[in-house]
Amino acid sequence: MDVFFLGTGAGVPAKLRNVTSIALKLLEERGAVWLFDCGEATQHQILHTSIKPRRIEKIFITHLHGDHIYGLPGLLSSRSFQGGESLVTVYGPAGIKEFIEVSLKISKSYLKYPIEIIEIEEGLIFEDDQFTIEARLLVHGIASFGYRVVEKDRPGTLLADKLAATGVKPGPDYKKIKNGEEVILEDGRVIHPEEFVGPPQKGRIVTILGDTRVCENAVLLADDADLLIHEATFSADEEALAHEYFHSTTLQAAETALKARAKKLCLTHISSRYDRNDWKQLEAEAVKVFSNTVISEDFMEIGISLRMTD
Questions:
Q1: pLDDT of residue 281
Q2: What is the DSSP string of the chain?
Q3: CA–CA separation, 181 vs 173, rounded Å?
Q4: What's the mean per-residue pLDDT of the chain?
Q5: CA proximity to 222, closest of 234, 210, 236
Q6: Contacts of residue 41, Cβ cutoff 8 Å, sequence gap at least 6
Q7: Of the candidates 8, 6, 3, 4, the residue with the CA atom closest to the CA atom of residue 282
Q8: Is 226 annotated in the active site?
Q9: Is the pLDDT of residue 310 over 80?
Q10: Which residues contact 191 (CB under 8 A, 6 or more apart)?
Q11: Among residues 2, 37, 67, 237, which one is catalytic?
């Protein structure tokens, strides 16, 4: 599980920061990529990476401001010419369905793969045997959602060397033991799975917020998260401006991470008023409150380490 930043700027594209798009790479977990927002030129940013558009399985839109959605019709269209045949599901606020369908219709773009568009409300919006995804409304000028991605706990690692030492040969019995089933050997011995499987792997949590003022739902979504990705459009001394434009400061993002007991904070959606020389200062403002903070840059990648259960 890795988070890859395709665009980390706010409002308009800049030379060093494209507008917002974040890829959650789940290649080992499910051979797929989930995209969060798709600002203008996201597909061009992808060209500079190893990400394959055909692997994009789900797209989550936080809100309908242009710097978060203008790249979506182009990406969906191009995917047809890049080997994409599998279903893509797009989640987003009311209006995302009309935006996509009208864009494709007017441009006479025909997708060669099925697409499902789900206009979401607060609550659990997705669950399978691997993940759950919860959405909550934030506080912005229009409906803006935050997403909490929770990986379900997984069985521990099979202790294959220990099994081999007891005379159990690789094969179907290994799978049974991994799944928690007892196995009776030909000589009558009973293999108890708890003796040959390592500690369970606790599921990881990634929280990705859309644009927002400080709010309680941001804290709830980020509770105990391994990684909180929080907008920090303005510096700490621009709190009044941030409030006026329904955004957050570096300091406010750090305070949210602290309240939520998140493990790591990544600042993104950085205004173009701040150049490269300012970025470390923006990071330092947040670090004063929440020490494990980094500021994102385009093409930065953050790995999410496995947890172990207590």
A1: 97
A2: -EEEEEE-BSSS--SS-PBPEEEEEEHHHHSEEEEE---TTHHHHHTTSS--GGGEEEEE-----HHHHTTHHHHHHHHTTTT--S-EEEEESTTHHHHHHHHHHHTT---SS-EEEEE--SEEEEE-SSEEEEEEE--SSS--EEEEEEEPPB---B-HHHHHHTTPPSSHHHHHHHTT--EE-TTS-EE-GGGTB---EEPPEEEEE-S--S-HHHHHHTTT-SEEEEE--B-GGGHHHHHHTT--BHHHHHHHHHHHT-S-EEEE-B-TTS-HHHHHHHHHHHHTT-SSEEE--TT-EEE-PPEE--
A3: 9
A4: 94
A5: 210
A6: 7, 13, 18, 19, 71
A7: 8
A8: no
A9: no
A10: 163, 166, 168, 173, 177, 182, 183, 184, 185
A11: 67
Whats the size of the chain, residue-wise?
310
Instruction: Tell me whether strands 201-202 and 265-268 are parallel, antiparallel or unpaired.
Output: unpaired
Tell me how far apart the alpha carbons of residues 251 and 196 are, in angstroms, rounded to a whole number: 47
Token pair of 251 as six digits:
């300091």
Structure tokens at 214: 């400080």
Helix axis angle, 72-79 to 96-106, nearest 10° = 60
In the numeric block, which tokens belong to residue 177? 């033991």
Confidence of residue 115 (pLDDT cuts 50, 70, 90): very high
pLDDT of 308: 54
Contact between 185 and 283 under an 8 Å Cβ cutoff? The reply is no
Task: Give the integer Cα–Cα distance in Å for 228 and 242.
Answer: 19
Q: What is the pTM of this model?
A: 0.90
Question: Cα 276 to the chain's mean position, in Å?
Answer: 25
Which tokens sit at 182? 């007892």
User: What's the pLDDT at 62?
Assistant: 98
The Cα–Cα gap between 49 and 128 comes to 28
Task: Kindly indicate the confidence band of residue 176, based on its pLDDT and cuts at 50, 70 and 90.
Answer: confident
Provide the phi-psi class of 246: left if phi over 0, else alpha when psi is between -120 and 50, else beta.
Answer: left
Q: Are 132 and 123 in contact (CB under 8 A)?
A: no
**301, β-bridge pairs:** 4
